[in-house]
Amino acid sequence: MSEEVLVNVENLRTFFYTEDGEVPAVDGVSFHINRGETLGVVGESGCGKSVTSLSIMRLIPDPPGKILKGSSITFEGEELLTKSDSDMRKIRGNDISMIFQEPMTSLNPVYTVGDQIMEAIELHQGLSEKEARKQAIEMLNLVGIPSPEQRIDEYPHQLSGGMRQRIMIAMALSCNPRMLIADEPTTALDVTIQAQILELMKRLKDELGMAIMLITHDLGVIAEMAERVVVMYAGKIVEEGTVFDVFADPMHPYTEGLINSIPRLDGAKGERLHVIEGVVPNPLAMPQGCYFNPRCPYAMDVCLEEQPDLIEDEGGRKVACWLHSKDRSGVA
Question: Rounded to two decimals, what is the model's pTM?
């Protein structure tokens, strides 16, 4: 796999301005995605995963949302945040595509699935309706839709959840994008369909050479699909590293809690599942210091006072935790 950086996000700050106050949905997030790799982004609901992906696509509704000055998102070296709306429309679906969480609400119920796939092909590739239809059928076949010549003229409500998710993947890949953002691509699908969708994404990634940003709360999916993983909590990145390193030796207490929460087949009979006490903090009333300190079993005095920086070690691991700061905690 080439280590050439495809997408680079620097100090991304996406806030929402509501009647109740300012909501820092994403606050100072930085990461990169290499060409041809899969980056996993994990965390509980409300931690900023989806807002980060929508920010990359420039799909944040303004108002009430706003990507603040000082943020930077580059794709193949070009800054996306300064591009015009018309330039972004050319990039979306063509260079960067996205699979949204719920296919039934993402697909238009009054148009056939073929019309919806063909629209992107005609728009970005300038093909005739006949050529676009032929390519749409090829895409349905590629994602494993049986009888694609028949399915292309059906409406979303005529298809199962797994079929609709495959349609979404076909739409996203119809213009051979260089990066695919998959936001909870297997949510609400049964286990067998989930496995088929993940296997399909893995195969298409290898065949098309595209990068994938995979957003999920399911660590099992990350272990199966990704090379590197970013762990988010309360709008910030708290840990980043290779999947092997993070799973084998989690450095942040939140990551440790997520991994310990995975049910194990070799656990003792009657043993209760591990849980992370408490909930993600209200973004309108963030705790002082480290945002995780009210839920952290290792919290120290410094954790209640100051927010730790995301620090990178010699091996490329990154963690934002005072336990791993030699300067302040004296523990590391």
Answer: 0.88
